[in-house]
Amino acid sequence: MIRFVLIAAVTAIAVLPGTVGPALAQQRVTSNTLQELKNKLDEQRNAYYRIELAEREALKDDSPERASVYQQAKNKAYEAYLALNAQLQQAQMEKRVQDARQAQQNPDYR
User: 24 falls in which pLDDT band (50, 70, 90)?
Assistant: First the structure.
């Protein structure tokens, strides 16, 4: 039981949004940056679903205390997912603006 709680907690915390957001404000947004954000978003979504499965298993095993812990972890994982998704959308917007500006300055850009 403790193992499941630890896995859920570590998974939710491990993939929380890192320093990618502040870094975007200080440098060019590259395709690698966007891919990194997409990968983190996928990891966070997968963590959410793993926690949700663990919560269902706890409910099935008639363990409401364990299910409650998973519910809290699931809520945190969802919040982290929303934050990462917002970062990704912001980075995509900045990349489009950056590419448009670059294309205006250099017609051969792309």
Answer: very low
Which of 45, 52, 41, 42 is CA-nearest to residue 8? Answer: 52
Task: Tell me how many degrees the CA angle 18-19-24 measures, rounded to the nearest 5.
Answer: 130
For 57, counting Cβ atoms within 10 Å of its Cβ (0-12 exposed, 13-18 middle, 19+ buried), the class is: middle
Dist. CA 1–CA 57, nearest whole Å: 11
State pTM to two decimals: 0.71
Between 77 and 6, where is the model more confident? 77
15-25: average pLDDT: 50
